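Quick start: what a row looks like.
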Amino acid sequence: MPIVSVIIATHNRATLLPRAVKSAQESGTDVEVIVVDDASTDETAEVCRGMSGIRYLRVERNQREGGARNIGIINSTGDYLTFLDDDDVRLPGSIDLQLKALTASPEAGLIYGQAFIADQNGLATNDFYPPRCPQGDVFWELLSQNFIPCGTVLFSRSCLYRTGLLDESVPGVEDWDLWVRIASLYQVIAVDQPLMVWRKSTPASQQATSRAAQMAKMSGVLLRRKWLKLPRAAAGPRDQRRHVRQEFSRNLASHLVFETARALAIGHFSGAQKNALAALRLHPLASVRVAIRCAVRFLSATARGISLPADLNKGFMHYKRTKASK
């Protein structure tokens, strides 16, 4: 029986899927790769029939990522679980590295690491996220910002006996929700090195993370109606809960301003408008401050002849590193 189950939920990405599967197979010595075909209408089924060493599951009605991952979990056999998006890549030996560290820390529920940022062609850059990897009791910090790249997480199946499966009602942030629930009960450990290559979304891409305003709204609902009502949060000091709400709004507003600028740079005006309005509702002051930083970078980029989308990506990573170091 395999020790680790790698669950790849896929929908109409037949050309990208083989690379993800191969990377999953090369990431550990004792893994099973489960591909959940979430009602694809392209050649995904045919492509999967041509691949060896995978378990192929197909659903005829689109479940979205949370539902497809839950189907993978239910049909998996490993004592440890990890998710991999169909357009991302695990680095060789990364699961073995994490498994050794996680089994040596019985108090920990999950382990994560950094992710190289890739462009839409899947080519890795020198940028990575997060710039630092908080460890230990990260519950309160995780409430205000999701610093855990989903594809780098390895967690124990036993955690799910206490937390339950992914919440399918919050598409795009169901992974963050699961990490919060695990962190409320267990310690979290990390590997301070890249473990995967993450294809960064664009405002015009079909990736879930490209719907920034919608995801911001859903995560806000989660914070108010679910996370702050968890026993761990409800028992915490009132000042700490207030601080979490403030930091959550500030972090998310800053992210939305950058997404607004990225959308404007490629002429995606409707997306830019949605992101800008969402940012202003969350935290007007933080939105204005970050907007000024973006404007300065625009002027600097123009003066140096740098394309705006490229400079925005650099600016976003610089902002994240600067904030994390404080």
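That is the whole record. The first strand starts at residue 4 and ends at 10. The first helix runs from residue 17 to 26.
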